[in-house]
Amino acid sequence: MTVPVNILQNVQTYQKAELAWLLNSFVGINIANKKFKNFNDLTANLGDTVTFDTTPRYQSYAGLVITEQPSTQRVQSLVCSQAANVSAAYTDQQFILNVRDYMDRFGMAAVKELGTSIEGDILRNFISGVTVNDPQNSNFQGKQVNSGPFRFYGDGVTPINSFTQLAQSVANFEDFGAASHKMCAILPVANIPAIVGTGLNQFAMTRNNETAMSWELGKFANTDWYESNLLPTHVSGTIGNAAAPNNVMTVVSTNDPTGANVTTITFTEPTTGTDANAIKAGDLFQFNDGVSGKPNMRFLTFIGHQVSQQPVQFRAIADAATVGGTVTVQIQTINSVGLVWAQNANQNLNNAIQAGMTVTPLPSHRAGILMSGDQFYLAMPRLPDQSPFTTSNMTDPDSGASIRHYFGVQFGQNNRSYVRDCFWGSSLVAENSLRYAFPL
User: Domains of the chain, with CATH numbers?
Assistant: First the structure.
């Protein structure tokens, strides 16, 4: 009697190929910074959260008489609490007659499904931060981690369909003063043909050759351009989706009249009704120019605090309802900071926010992203061995992506289970990112 060779024991062979496929097929997983790939092994790090430094901020003063100021370490958290698996079961007959020689196909299908779950989750950083669900930590049960951009390009109505528009978005991004190294962007795949069509008319042979790659538009404007079919859709609140002028909101007051850190703004809006879905977390807003008697609002540069050409924008970080036509919006720009006109290290406005100023939120849109500084973080810690079951837990040495494979047999039940699973968390630094708003 010939005993069939159980080639499932050679799981590393499959795992290595599947891990490579995962990295080559999902742009977010591929390009994310995985410096925290095994943060659980860091000295003195306990639990499912790791904090990392973001750019410190100072303020300069005129003259030689010094004004001492504190040195504040700015930190952001990455919570590793997301998990997914793809498992399958086979009888011995199925295994030896059908499955054994088809494991590469099964493996590719399983990793496509698993990779889509990971990719779809981490790309949600581009609209309102990821939602973490950690049953071991009451602080992170169904809670959104507010990473991701507060600035944006596009109005959610006008198509973004040319290299000229993309170049303008990069110029806006740089004008604010974001990190200018390792700039990259991910755009919705369905919007690529129109953009490529405008570029192929230009004599740019290297860039045109690169457009043939699977999810790469090429490089221009100091930026690497990618595409994805998994970018998220942001569904705006009813005010953002209303027709003008019912989408124009008027400032009533702020929570901080000193301007040291405005984190909530109260508005009126024209419908004067009551609406539980008026504002949704992740909604984006821009102060309007040309309001009678009010100055135009402009951002100060992130470094240097000089007036830029960029209109002031911000993001809602929580749902808000209107009551009698009034709504109070929780806002955020950089991590833990709102809008600031007081003279301090976080100052980002050229003028004080005044009653009577108006803002307009964006309608629902498909999100793209422009980011820099390699500050889109993904952690995929290695999961423990499933002994006594055969286990392989391989981490890609270059990228840090990790998937666990294990299988086992139920004694006397003619059933063998095969599992692929992983564990991850992600975060995106706000000041080094910008959301594209593509019309739906």
Answer: 7-143+377-423 (3.30.2400), 152-233 (no CATH), 236-363 (2.40.30)
